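Intended use. Records like the one below are meant for learning the mapping from a protein sequence to its folded structure. Do not use them to infer anything beyond what is encoded.
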Amino acid sequence: MKKYMRIQGREIAYKTGKPVGLFVLNWRKIRDGIYSDEDVGLYDETHKWFLEFLPEPPFYGDDNDNPRGVVTYFKTENYEAMREKSEILMGLLDKYKIPYDIVFTDYVGEIIYEDEYQAAVI
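Structure written out for the chain above:
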């Protein structure tokens, strides 16, 4: 088993120059008015769970600024705790036929933050 995984879209984030992650990909579709009100509520509820469950890396500011272009990966050894909620978000992408990829790797780059569930890299 690889040590890290990232669920990412095929759209590029302007701050990182990398594919957007699972949360931003869903958020963009909400912003663009693609999701139904019910699905926006499902995303909001699921995102709130992640905000409460996952430690917030220190490089995110009040405006979610990310000046170093950091991206995060889930640690596969502890992913099971987040699987159900991640699958809800992937299910929304599937429902609206929004392409995404699940990337597994042992080599993520320079780790600048790490906790039990995730690693942030540049």
